[in-house]
From TrEMBL:
UniProt organism field: Salipiger thiooxidans
SUPFAM superfamilies, A to Z: Periplasmic binding protein-like II
Full protein name: Molybdate-binding protein ModA
Family named by the database record: Belongs to the bacterial solute-binding protein ModA family.
Record-linked PANTHER family: MOLYBDATE-BINDING PERIPLASMIC PROTEIN, MOLYBDATE-BINDING PROTEIN MODA
Localization of this protein: Cell membrane
Function: Involved in the transport of molybdenum into the cell. Part of the binding-protein-dependent transport system ModABCD.
Residues annotated to bind molybdate: S35, S62, A147, V174, Y192
GO cellular component, one term: outer membrane-bounded periplasmic space
Record text on subunit structure and interactions: The complex is composed of two ATP-binding proteins (ModC), two transmembrane proteins (ModB) and a solute-binding protein (ModA).
């Protein structure tokens, strides 16, 4: 009687197939704006299930990610929350210009920690300074991070910025600003509508008028020094039906057909 510990043939074939698949699997590194966290968590999981490849997603403020790319950080795909940082990388020759696509749209809202806070009309008559009292207004970095840039532009357009500027608590990214409001450290904040939808511990008081700030556009592109094949595959996946559904569930406007 043979005492060979070898597995049955079927099991051996399965193990071999799994080994081959693992050897052929690819990994794509994605730098994405922090406001995309919930959607990207879902999309990267589905992408792995459907393709066998892995998407490693690094989330931060668009400015921080762009500067990391400028400093040589290895990435395959970049998704910015505004066009300016993508323009900067394009001017530096760091993205594949032909791959660039306007992927998503968004809006900015005023959120409160108080679940019973009454909705307001956001216009030039909004008594925002009075609403704050001596407390803070949470915003992403107003001169670097897109959500903060849009928020400052909107407040400036409405004539409200000078009145609240000394009370603005700036954070490295929009999700950090959201967290300040969610935990009650700041009573009010300005974040993307998609961030507010993802956080049950804030309530939306109102949406800033579209004409009070530049259009909120999320461009995506592959990096010039990245793995071109797997990067383009993932960028295509971001424009497909699975990703579209995930983005729409989070409240984004999908700009691609």
């Amino acid at each position: 009687m043979s005492l060979c510990p070898c597995p049955p043939l079927a099991a051996a074939v399965l193990m071999l197939a799994s080994s081959v698949a693992a050897a052929n699997a690819a990994e794509v590194t994605v730098f994405a704006a922090a406001s995309m966290k919930n959607a990207m968590d879902e999309i990267s999981a589905r992408y792995a299930e459907e393709t066998g490849n892995t998407a490693v997603v690094s989330l931060a403020g668009s400015s921080a990610l762009a500067r990391q790319i400028q400093a040589g950080a290895p990435a395959d795909v970049f998704i910015s929350a505004n066009t300016d940082w993508m323009d900067t990388l394009e001017q530096d020759g760091l993205i594949d210009t032909d791959s660039r696509v306007d992927l998503l749209g968004n809006s900015i809202v005023l959120v409160a920690h108080d679940p019973d806070a009454a909705p307001v009309t956001i216009d030039a008559d909004l008594p925002l300074a009075e609403m704050l009292g001596e407390d803070r207004l949470a915003m992403a970095l107003v001169d670097a991070v897109p959500a903060g840039i849009y928020g400052k532009a909107a407040l400036t357009s409405l004539g409200l910025w000078d009145g609240v500027m000394p009370q603005v608590a700036q954070t490295d990214n929009v999700r950090a600003a959201l967290a300040l409001v969610a935990t009650g450290e700041a009573p009010l904040g300005i974040v993307y509508a998609t961030d507010a939808a993802a956080e049950p511990d804030v309530s939306v008081l109102g949406t800033f008028p579209e004409d009070s700030h530049a259009p909120i556009t999320y461009p995506a592109a592959t990096l010039a020094d990245g793995d071109a094949a797997v990067a383009q595959e993932f960028l295509d996946y971001l424009q497909g039906p699975v990703a579209r559904a995930a983005f729409e569930r989070q409240g984004f406007t999908v700009l691609t057909e």
